[in-house]
């Protein structure tokens, strides 16, 4: 089922390319395939203006030692037309939801604490990976 959904995302991405290429401003366009939270995080993303920088930095730096795009996706038609980078997939948990402290069930995964500008403390937990596929010349125009 995930392969079918991933193929639909790839088809959508390539169907959008003519319209995106016609835009005068820089464009960010990518396919995101998340695992294990495929349904929650996988999508086709396109952004212009300030969203370009947002999408380019949303996952931080690529993880060169992360796993490659899974074989079940590599073999899909047109997947090989994209350059894929692996990033940690992270989920934030609000300290207010855990008055007794962070549970071991969260701390057993790679994690770090982050305090937002409004003072709220979150535990950022890596729960998987996200593979970001873009055209080889995908630097914003």
Characterise this structure:
By secondary structure, the protein is an alpha+beta fold. The protein contains five helices and five strands. Strands 1, 2, 3, 4 and 5 form a five-stranded antiparallel β-sheet that branches. The longest helix has 20 residues, at 2-21. It is globular and about 50 Å long.
| Low-pLDDT ranges | none
Biggest pleated sheet: 5 strands, antiparallel
Radius of gyration: 17 Å
What portion of the residues fall into strands of 2 or more residues?
Answer: 25-35%
Alpha-carbon distance between the two ends: 35 Å
Q: Which series of helices and strands comes N to C?
A: HEHEHHEHEE
Shape: globular
Supply the number of helical segments: 5
Task: Please tell me the overall pLDDT.
Answer: 94
Total beta-strand segments: 5
Fraction of helical residues: 25-40%
SSE class: alpha+beta
Provide a quick synopsis of the model:
This protein is of the alpha+beta class.
Give the tags.
5 helices, alpha+beta, globular, 141 residues, five-stranded antiparallel sheet
Annotate the secondary structure layout.
Elements: H1 2-21, E1 27-35, H2 38-41, E2 43-48, H3 50-57, H4 71-74, E3 82-94, H5 104-107, E4 111-115, E5 121-135
Antiparallel strand pairs: 1-2, 1-5, 3-5, 4-5
């Amino acid at each position: 089922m995930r392969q079918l959904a991933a193929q639909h995302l790839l088809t959508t991405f390539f169907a959008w390319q003519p319209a995106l290429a016609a835009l005068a401003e820089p464009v960010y366009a990518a396919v995101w395939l998340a695992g294990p939270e495929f349904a929650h995080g996988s999508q086709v993303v396109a952004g212009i203006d300030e969203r370009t920088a947002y999408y380019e930095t949303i996952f931080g730096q690529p993880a060169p030692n992360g796993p490659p795009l899974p074989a079940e996706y590599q073999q899909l038609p047109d997947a090989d037309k994209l350059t894929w980078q692996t990033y940690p997939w992270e989920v934030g948990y609000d300290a207010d939801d855990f008055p007794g402290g962070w549970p071991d069930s969260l701390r057993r995964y790679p994690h770090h604490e982050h305090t937002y500008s409004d003072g709220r403390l979150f535990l950022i937990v890596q729960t998987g990976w996200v593979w970001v596929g873009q055209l080889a010349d995908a630097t914003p125009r």
